[in-house]
Amino acid sequence: MTHRVAVRPSGIELDVLDGEDLFTAAQRLGYRWPTVCGGQGTCRTCFVQVDEGAENCSPVGPLEREGIEALRRPVDGLTRLACRLRVEGPVTVTKRGVRRRVQE
Fold it and tell me: Is the entire prediction scored with pTM above 0.85?
């Protein structure tokens, strides 16, 4: 089963697999998602703002909580790390810099 995640402002829509995080889904589908650590949860560059569907998001885990606090953001479920965020229904997020990878 897949779950639709809309990414603003680019208008990209991603079909995220059950149990897959948003960052991994974007890579699988050929998108470049801003990151330094490559999805390890340590750089915090991948953070997103959840605009709609927060109730469809996985709970914030310890590593993600630490990252959100380091960003000086409230741990309220609206700021999330894409590399830790799993979804169980439709979600809309805001993240600048997500774009299709250039094919060589």
Answer: yes
